[in-house]
Amino acid sequence: MALTLAEGAKLSNDVLLEGVIETVINDSPVLQRLPFIEIVGNGLTYNRENAAATAAYYAVGDTWSESTPTFTQVTAALKVLGGDADVDNYLARTRNNVQDLEAAVVTLKARAVQQQFDDTFVNGDTSTAANAFDGIDKLCVAGQTVSMGTNGATLTLAKLDELIDTVRGGKPDMLLVSRRTRRSLTALSRATGSGILEQNRDEFGHMVQFYNGIPVGVNDYIPDAKTVGTSGDCSTIYALQFGEGAMVGLTGPGGLTVERVGALETKDATRIRVKWYVATALFNTLKLAKLTGVRP
Predict the structure, then answer these.
(1) 231 lies in a domain?
(2) Among 11, 116, 140, 145, which residue's beta carbon has the most beta carbons within 10 A?
(3) Does the residue 179 lie in any domain?
(4) CA angle 253, 255, 259 (to 5 degrees)
(5) Per-residue pLDDT of the chain (296 residues; tens, 9 = 90+)
(6) Which residues touch 47 (CB under 8 Å, ≥6 apart)?
(7) Residues 122, 252: one domain?
(8) Buried b (16+ CB within 10 A) or exposed e, 113-152
(9) Are residue 83 and residue 178 in the same domain, yes or no?
(10) Are residues 236 and 257 in the same domain?
(11) Which one, of 216, 153, 221, lies nearest residue 186 by Cα?
């Protein structure tokens, strides 16, 4: 069964871990909604469907032809993401009346883990960073790519609808955009005067925009300076479905963990380690699409 980080945190009695998970998901719309499958081992091997089976009409007495779907076997290996946070013992004992120093240091480290995950989720490429995992920009296949044009163009609602229709088996669970693109979408909504964007609070209390009922998430690591043709100011919009059979996260037993390494030998400090064995898996390429060449 796949659980989001928020749901998984409810099963923990570790107050420090709950605080770390709350920090991690607070600023990441992906981590708020991406379900994770806990796996035993160092990776998951699964079959990704390439082509569906076909059917046909036959006359009485015809010879029937056989058709089966084809698959590609894919292995997603868990990667090690995390960092150490050292709490100076002198400061912890003399300054804790002002602020819980340990909590502050661990919070900053948890936020760094979240930012690194968000970056890799979009831009990860194992051919250039072997210790990371492949992001959605690389996982999206050519047939699932919609283009704004040879040299890119300003976003239109028609192209956005085309992107949404490229995701099969239901509407996307999220449109992932840069902050600049979200401003463009808001401007489009004002210009048309049709109220195509709705706003509501999610379960975390954040105001979220919805386009055609699909939440619009912002990722700070979607670049706005990609080159498409002669234009060097292009961005990308991603449409994706979450869940088993679509896009999921993979995590090792226990999920995101917080370890107290303890006192250090070389300095008067205590070390806490935020650690996560994590990766992603795309079970069906039709559940992910992208719109390239989005100019301001």
Answers:
(1) yes
(2) 140
(3) yes
(4) 100
(5) 566 766 665 555 565 666 677 777 788 999 999 999 999 888 999 888 777 788 999 999 999 998 888 888 999 999 999 999 898 888 888 876 545 778 888 888 889 999 999 999 999 999 999 999 999 999 999 899 999 999 999 999 999 999 999 999 899 999 999 999 999 999 988 887 766 888 888 777 778 899 999 999 999 999 999 999 999 999 999 999 999 889 999 999 888 888 889 898 889 999 999 999 999 999 999 999 999 999 99
(6) 71, 72, 73, 74
(7) yes
(8) bbebbbbbbbbbeeeeeeebbbbbbebbeeebebbbeeeb
(9) no
(10) no
(11) 216
Candidates 128, 115, 45; CA nearest to 81 is 115
For residue 2, give the 3-state DSSP assignment: coil
292's CB contacts (< 8 A; 6+ apart) are 145, 146, 147, 148, 152, 226, 228, 234, 236
- We report the CATH number of the domain holding residue 32 as 3.30.2400.20
- Do 163 and 220 share a domain, yes or no? yes
Both ends of the chain: CA-CA distance in Å? 41
Instruction: Give the C-alpha separation, 173 to 33, whole Å.
Output: 9
CA distances from 67 to 53, 54, 151 (A): 5, 6, 41
216 burial level (CB within 10 Å; 0-12, 13-18, 19+):
buried
In this structure, what token pair is assigned to residue 16? Answer: 């420090």
Q: What is the DSSP letter of 43?
A: E
Domains identified in the chain, total number: 2
The DSSP call for residue 126 is: T
User: Are residues 80 and 250 in contact, defined by beta-carbon separation less than 8 angstroms?
Assistant: no
Residues 108 and 230 in one domain: no
